[in-house]
């Protein structure tokens, strides 16, 4: 058992909120996280922060009791992704992701690599990046409607042994119907007030709407990280979703 992990639980988390730590360095990240409590949220570390700080920051945050989503979106040959997922499991991360477009053999190898791990992380597939439009897909030789591709890739992810996918909350209802109750749906693009300033997100939902649509976890960045009182925002979100 990894000694870093004192409260590891892959089946249920204490809150559906995952805060995206979109900071450039460790100092800013720790200054922000100091205000939080693991009962209020899980934390997502992406490519920028991980590349800048590496494994040690992940370990520090796990030590503090946080469940970590390592959002590195792996995409490589099966053996490389499998070993990367195993390395992530060894650190003790709670969730890790990869591109479904890496194919069935890549996902199966990843699932097999962590299947018997003492702290098996949730394996999540990235379907179509929300930054991609139909014309972008066509340019790389994919000529089917985005929505159809998302469902097809989510089904492939499930059949290849992944635990869930990242998707827009607007795709959650059809995916939930197709993929069943146990499949994990991780949805970004969450805003407290859909009429307010939404930064660069276009297709947004409130936390309660997203959960009602079938989301399992809500990824929230700027509405929490830029708030004057992030803890108050997290309490509000958790209260709203617990009341559902
Ligand atoms: O600040 P905001 O709430 O928009 O942050 C959302 C987070 O979710 C960011 O880290 C962003 O990179 C990530 N994300 C996203 N859309 C996706 C996948 C990930 O916004 N389709």
Automatic annotation (TrEMBL):
Assembly and interaction partners: Homodimer.
Pathway(s) the chain acts in: Pyrimidine metabolism; UMP biosynthesis via de novo pathway; UMP from orotate: step 2/2
Active site residues per record: 71, 73, 76
EC number, as in UniProt: 4.1.1.23
Organism annotation: Neisseria zalophi
Role, per record: Catalyzes the decarboxylation of orotidine 5'-monophosphate (OMP) to uridine 5'-monophosphate (UMP).
CDD domains from the UniProt entry: OMP_decarboxylase_like (cd04725)
Enzymatic reactions: orotidine 5'-phosphate + H(+) = UMP + CO2
Protein keywords: Decarboxylase, Lyase, Pyrimidine biosynthesis
Residues noted as binding substrate in the record, renumbered to the chain: 22, 44, 71-80, 130, 191, 201, 221-222
UniProt similarity note: Belongs to the OMP decarboxylase family. Type 1 subfamily.
A GO term, aspect molecular function: orotidine-5'-phosphate decarboxylase activity
Protein name, as recorded: Orotidine 5'-phosphate decarboxylase
Gene3D superfamilies: Aldolase class I
Group of enzyme by EC: lyase
Pfam families listed in its UniProt record: OMPdecase
GO CC, one annotated term: cytosol
Domain Orotidine 5'-phosphate decarboxylase: 16-237
Keyword Secreted among record annotations: no
